[in-house]
Structure formats: structure tokens, C-alpha cells
Amino acid sequence: MALGYVRPARPEDAGEIARIQLATWRVAYRRILPRHVLDNLDEAFLARRWSAAVLEPPSGAHRVLVAVEQAEQSYLVGFAASGPADSEALAPGEPADSLGPDVAAVTDLLVEPRWGRRGHGSRLLSATVDLWREDGLSRAVAWAFDGDEATRKFLTSTGWEPDGAARALDVDDMLVPQVRLHVAVPTEPLAEDRPGE
């Protein structure tokens, strides 16, 4: 029987996080982003960035969590990265203070496709929300590619909604539209997250 759990990322996880990111992007975004862009992403460069994110986060509220599936062996199968909202969370032309200091931003929430539909995404999101609550954050935002139905469906199934903000990323001279979703952070764990309930 396989078991899944979430834990904080460790420095030695950086290479595997980068591998999961590339594998997931190359499957999930193959119809959204130009193929040559996906093919030319540098796994070693991504691993260095993830190592820095784990070892030297901008604040104590910036976190990287990993999802683990444990059977005969343990496998890193997904990850989530988030922190207080900064300029990257803003829509074009949005005032710098419009999101406020109590807003979290998800920068990444990925589960490698071959490990999908096993609850890893839900566990990552739940653990992330628990940490936001501990940090006193009351709302969260996340950008999703307009064409990424899987991510949008997952987030909306857990209570997230579009907040009306949109932007387009310039990916090698191709504009790729994104929409921003938001959710209120519950003040208490949901009943299914409480021990004994």
C-alpha cells in the first residue's frame, strides 16, 4: 500500500524538484508554450535556483514543500512554493500595494503527471494553507495559464476563483495569457484536516 505525505524541502531535493518541474512542464504545457522553449530549459540551472529557494528564502514565510509517495521506496512526486505576495503577483498596471501584506502567492504547485490523481496536489495545497494561516495571511493568489485547464479545475474545485486580473507572459516573442485566481485562507483547519474528525 502506498502512502503519501508532505514535508519541507531539503537542500538535497533541489535536483529532483528541477526534474519534476521539467517533466511536468513538458507534458502539461506542451500545447501552451513553444516546444523549443521547453526543450531548451536547463535542469542544472533550475536545480541551482531551487537550492537557493530552500537554503536562502527571502523570508521565513517563503517555503518550498515536497510531496512524497512511499511504497517499497520513497519517491519525490511534486512540490509547492509560496510566500508573501510581491510584485510578481501583481497584474500589469496594478498598484504595488493593492494585494496587501496579508496576501500569499503561490509561485509553483506541480505534481509529476505519472503520480497524478493520488491526492498529492491536495496534500501540498492543504499543508501550504496551514502555513499561511500560521503566518497570519488571510488571502492567497495564484497565476495559471489560461490554457491550463487541469490547474484551473484543481484550484476552483478547492474554492479558488478568478479575481478578474489577467496578464500575458512574453515567451520567446509569443504572448501566453494567464489569469489570476484567489481564495480566502480559512481561519481554522477544515474538518477533514483536523485530527480525530
TrEMBL record:
Highest taxon, organism lineage: Bacteria
Cited SUPFAM superfamilies: Acyl-CoA N-acyltransferases (Nat)
Sorted UniProt keywords: Acyltransferase, Transferase
Xref: InterPro entries: Acyl_CoA_acyltransferase, Bact_Acetyltransf, GNAT_dom
Protein name as catalogued: L-amino acid N-acyltransferase YncA
Species this chain originates from: Micromonospora taraxaci
Pfam families: Acetyltransf_1
Signal peptide segment: none
N-acetyltransferase domain sequence ranges: 4-182
GO MF terms held by the record: acyltransferase activity, transferring groups other than amino-acyl groups
Gene3D superfamilies, per the entry: 3.40.630.30
